[in-house]
Amino acid sequence: MAASQQILEPAPQEPSLDEGGMADLWRAFEEVGFKLLDIGARGGSLPWLAFFAPFSTYYGCEPDISAAAGLRHVLRKKNPWRDTVIIPEAMASAPGPATLYLTRHPGFSSVLEPNMEIVRKFGLEEEFTVEDTIQVPTITMQGAAEKYGFEDVSFIKLDTQGSELDILKSGADLLKGPVQGVFVEAEFRPFYKRQPLFSDVERFLRRAGFELIRMDPVSRRRTSTNLRLGYSRHELTWAHALFIKTQLNPNHLDKKTHFARLVRQVAIAIASEQFDLAAERITEPGSVEVLQEAGLSVTLDDLDAYVSKRVAKSLYRDFRSSWAKITKDRPRYYT
Question: pLDDT tens-digit profile of 133-182?
């Protein structure tokens, strides 16, 4: 949903990766490269994805002409990526024109029509009001990969307001092959007509070899009642979820491909702060052999030192930002 879209900018300065085995790992990131596909790129990429920028090509898919122009403007102003490609077509299950419903809040625009019966239950009718419709060209994910050159895409982020599953299905071969991670929005309620729900998306990705690693849910209260109760727990409405490939199947890969996919999985795990998963990947027997043959000597101690610096810095930043509130509410915290 709209809340997930943020201006493209570098994440806060990362701890150094130029010491010990982490320097070897960073050189491996640069060597294998990375292609990141952002489907629904209004405003630019999510800040945490900027970890990939120095060694990645960013493919931003945005069919709304004004949003695509805004994305180009942001990229011209500040572009940390190795290279960028803007895709001015909507991705869909089949090529051809589609109707794009432009809502009052731009972040809720979709190729699916809003389901106002559900929207009203959660008090979002203002944001979901359709103010215009336009025809946009569509292309499948596989077709876009061939047209724009990301057949070896490593990571996909999708936020397209209900059409995510159709798009994923249109790139099934990419998911079975080079894609190592997916960050996707999915709804628990049908805010759009004929849309799949979170369980459908999760089932499809699980069958494609991905594991649900993290979920950041969004919840709201129902507002359709006139009772005006003073309190009620919120209900799940939608979530942003991270999926990563469960295994590499090295027996079916040549060593070069195994190395590249392993390194990309580790990059995804580090970028998303799934450090346990990164540690597991670099210490698996088959992985250790591949890394050593490539001349990488990264150890758990190297990773742990990096994690300590990164987490300590973020905790300090969070502490500083919350200090004013803690001071204001001191009696509640300390008495």
Answer: 999 999 999 999 999 999 999 999 999 999 999 999 999 999 999 999 99
Q: What is the CA radius of gyration of the chain?
A: 21
Q: Cβ atoms within 10 A of the Cβ of 311, count?
A: 13
Alpha-carbon distance of 56 to 80, in angstroms, equals 9
Q: In what order do the strands lie in the sheet with 235-245?
A: 83-87, 56-61, 34-39, 155-158, 181-187, 235-245, 210-220
- State both tokens at 232: 């009620």
pLDDT in tens, 97-145: 999 999 999 999 999 999 999 999 999 999 999 999 999 999 999 999 9
Q: Which two tokens stand for residue 80?
A: 């940390």
Residue 38's beta-bridge partner residues? 60, 157
DSSP 51-63: GGGGGEEEEEE--
CATH class, range 2-226+233-302: alpha beta
Identify residue 290 by its one-letter amino acid code: V
Q: How many residues does the chain have?
A: 335
Domain locations in the chain as residue ranges: 2-226+233-302
CB atoms within 10 A of CB 54: 15
Positive/negative CA dihedral, 85, 86, 89, 91: positive
DSSP state, residue 112: S
Tell me the C-alpha distance between 278 and 291, whole Å: 13
Amino acid at site 144: A
Give the type of residue at 332: R
Say which residues have a Cβ less than 8 Å from residue 320's Cβ, sequence separation at least 6: none
Distance of CA 38 to the CA centre of its chain: 8
